[in-house]
Design brief:
Elements (H helix, E strand, L loop, with lengths): L3 H4 L4 E8 L6 H17 L4 E3 L23 H13 L2 E9 L6 E9 L2 E7 L15 E2 L9 E4 L2 E5 L8 H9 L4 E6 L7 H16 L2 E6 L10 E3 L5 E4 L18 E8 H10 L2 H4 L9
Parallel strand pairs: 1-2, 2-3, 4-6, 8-9, 9-10
Antiparallel strand pairs: 1-13, 3-4, 4-5, 7-8, 10-11, 11-12
Helix pairs in contact: 2-3
């Protein structure tokens, strides 16, 4: 392996949160995703988080045109990269739905032995003038949380609009997560970049967990990749970044990486000093 597997057994691991402009053409998008994994491995990372819709992205809306099955070329290519490098990969994809015109917004976690799990987005983005539910099917809120081990840390998976629902993050922490991975294609709009930055920090603080946010780049999206520690301190990246013309169009649409070290000991110390998880008096109950 090029770096990831050797370091995944330590209590401290390196992570890459990646911003990509994923091409609408699936083979082009897949090549960019694999290249990001290889760069992470070369930097000694044990975990890389890629954006929502890393399989292919169209800012006008993603649906069945971007869908491919779990055994399709996108996931297979990332699985080979994960096996080759030893890096655990979290990436957004699109799966076929129950009908030809429908699809599922999903996140796949991949390791040296293949697919570690799949999360299907529970909260569809029917807000700020968007209607994901016109094209996509929601995941089951009662499905088992996706939490995967990486070294001494445990990585829980949610995606984009889920970040606005604290129950989603808390459900993962209740399942043992010490890191929250958030692939996103954060839609542009008034205050939206500030919302992204604020919510990443809020989920970290209230759950005393690391939060790793990865974003799409290019037209129609805002916000930068970031790594936030369990005290809410931004360790890497500029999550509140707004594109040059304030409408989501960057002068540079190349890959952007926020890289940092995640330490299981830091989570333990923060949770001892701030025992809010032990002091809570409510539990998360899945709804309809």
């Amino acid at each position: 392996p090029r770096g990831g597997r050797r370091r995944a057994e330590a209590p401290v691991i390196r992570v890459h949160a990646v911003a990509l402009r994923s091409d609408p053409d699936r083979p082009t998008a897949a090549a960019a995703a694999v290249a990001a994994v290889e760069r992470a491995a070369d930097d000694g990372a044990a975990l890389v988080v890629l954006p929502e819709y890393a399989v292919a992205f169209d800012p006008r809306g993603v649906g069945s045109d971007q869908a491919e099955p779990l055994d399709g070329p996108f996931v297979a290519g990332l699985a080979r990269a994960a096996a080759r490098t030893g890096v655990v990969v979290v990436a957004g994809t699109v799966l076929p739905g129950s009908r030809p015109e429908r699809a599922v917004n999903a996140v796949v976690a991949l390791g040296a032995d293949g697919v570690l799990g799949v999360y299907r987005k529970v909260h569809l983005y029917d807000a700020f003038g968007h209607r994901e539910s016109e094209r996509l099917e929601p995941g089951d809120p009662a499905a088992a949380p996706l939490v995967v081990p990486v070294g001494d840390l445990r990585v829980g998976v949610l995606t984009c609009y889920d970040l606005r629902f604290p129950e989603s993050a808390r459900l993962l922490v209740d399942a043992g997560a010490t890191v929250l991975a958030v692939p996103a294609a954060w839609a542009a709009g008034e205050h939206k970049a500030d919302h992204w930055a604020t919510l990443l920090r809020a989920r970290a603080i209230e759950n005393t967990a690391y939060v790793v946010g990865a974003t799409q780049r290019g037209p129609g999206v805002v916000g930068g990749p970031a790594v936030v520690d369990p005290d809410g301190v931004v360790l890497a990246g500029d999550p509140g970044r707004v594109a040059a013309d304030d409408r989501g169009r960057d002068a540079d649409d190349g890959p952007e990486v926020a890289a940092a070290e995640l330490d299981a000991g830091v989570v333990a110390r923060v949770r001892e000093r701030n025992p809010s998880l032990r002091n809570r008096r409510y539990r998360v109950v899945p709804g309809d």
